[in-house]
Amino acid sequence: MGELPDPVAGPGEVVVEVHAAAVNFSDILIVKGTYQVAAPVPFTPGSEFAGRVVEAGAGVEGLAPGDAVMGSTFVGAFAQRVAVPATGLTALAPGTDMRAAAAFGVAYATAHHSLTLAARLVPGETLAVLGAAGGVGLAAVEVGRLLGARVIAVASSAAKRALCLAKGAEVALPYDDLKRRLAAAGGADVVLDLVGGEHAEPALRAMRWGGRFVSVGFAAGDIPRIPLNLVMLKGVTVGGFEIGGWGRRDPEALRRGRAELARLFADGKLEPHVHAVYPLERGAEALAAVANRTSAGKVLIVPG
Ligand SMILES: NC(=O)c1ccc[n+]([C@@H]2O[C@H](COP(=O)([O-])OP(=O)(O)OC[C@H]3O[C@@H](n4cnc5c(N)ncnc54)[C@H](OP(=O)(O)O)[C@@H]3O)[C@@H](O)[C@H]2O)c1
Predict the structure, then answer these.
(1) Domain locations in the chain as residue ranges
(2) How far apart, in whole angstroms, are the C-alpha atoms of residue 139 and residue 104?
(3) Are strands 126-130 and 68-72 parallel, antiparallel or unpaired?
(4) What is 13-96+273-302's CATH number, 3.40.50.1000, 2.60.40.2470, 3.90.180.10, 2.40.128.50?
(5) Taking the model in full, what pTM does it have?
(6) Ligand 1 atom 24, closest CA
(7) How many Å apart are CA 17 and CA 303, to the nearest integer?
(8) Which long-range CB contacts under 8 A does 62-70 form with residues at least 24 apart?
(9) How far, CA to CA in Å, does 264 sit from each of 109, 186, 199?
(10) Domain 106-245, what fold?
(11) What tens digit of pLDDT does each residue of 100-134 get?
């Protein structure tokens, strides 16, 4: 560990003074060295933040010192200042709460885009979310409700399930005996799987005919294998969503989704749940709270 010099904005880059940064599951994997892309060592972790522009590099248009922005990057956000390409930033309306903005971007974009683009969720359907009390999971509960779905949340503890119910889930279930519990709750048209491991198959088995099973993450660590006979017999479509890849192939769809989310956020219709806020010097504890599953919703790190 050591102090790094303040970053300088290169061409097309912007230096942002970080007011709040959010912990994402990928930060844990990057720190552990198990993410699909390795960060060059040494590095400062942190992939999502909100703050104010302090310097705009050559060629940057539309952003000036003092502007409020939120953004994402691969690493570097758990710091007082971060340099990012201007394309990774979204301008914030004056007066936007920086902590809510830091907690919003990745989780709600992942939830909204996976439900609309990959799952094609329609009003009146039943959505089951595995890992429903996590950052993306709680966002999916809220967004699913707003899209007109009945939401079944699956989470490990009574406190997490109570939070899911407060965020709009109609039913909240533990993981054990999942197939029977989900079936008893009416089954699901759409399963949003953020967990994988041993929980994917029971959820698939409790799906209604013609449903969509969408894989978004493997928080449990193991990548499940899906028996295709179930897919065949149930007429289920198995799909997936990864925000980076989808954004490269269909940037216009993600732009439309981001605009819709920005409107819902500004109207106060979506409200990220912040579990805890840690000062920068206790950043390791913030990462641990997410890694050991004691947190729900988003954990923030605040420099200063
Ligand atoms: N595809 C994409 O574009 C994309 C984007 C963002 C995130 N993701 C993925 O989505 C998943 C959720 O991300 P997140 O940021 O919401 O993470 P998070 O806040 O840490 O939530 C993960 C949730 O998974 C549940 N879980 C179940 N088994 C677990 C285990 N063995 N270890 C850890 N957690 C376990 C935990 O809830 P319980 O304790 O209730 O089980 C936890 O709330 C991750 O796999 C992440 O990589 C994918």
Answers:
(1) 13-96+273-302, 106-245
(2) 9
(3) unpaired
(4) 3.90.180.10
(5) 0.96
(6) 131
(7) 9
(8) 62/86, 62/91, 63/14, 63/89, 63/91, 67/91, 68/92, 68/93, 68/94, 68/96, 68/98, 68/101, 69/14, 69/16, 70/101, 70/102, 70/104, 70/105
(9) 12, 29, 31
(10) Rossmann fold (3.40.50)
(11) 999 999 999 999 999 999 999 999 999 999 999 99
Nearest CA to ligand 1 atom 6: 110
- Ligand 1 within 6 A of CB of 118: no
Q: Can you read off the two tokens belonging to residue 292?
A: 């050991």
Report the length, in residues, of the chain: 304
| Tokens matching residue 258 | 């981001």
The string of pLDDT tens digits covering residues 179-198 is: 999 999 999 999 999 999 99
Q: How far is the CA of 293 from the centre of ligand 1 (A)?
A: 9
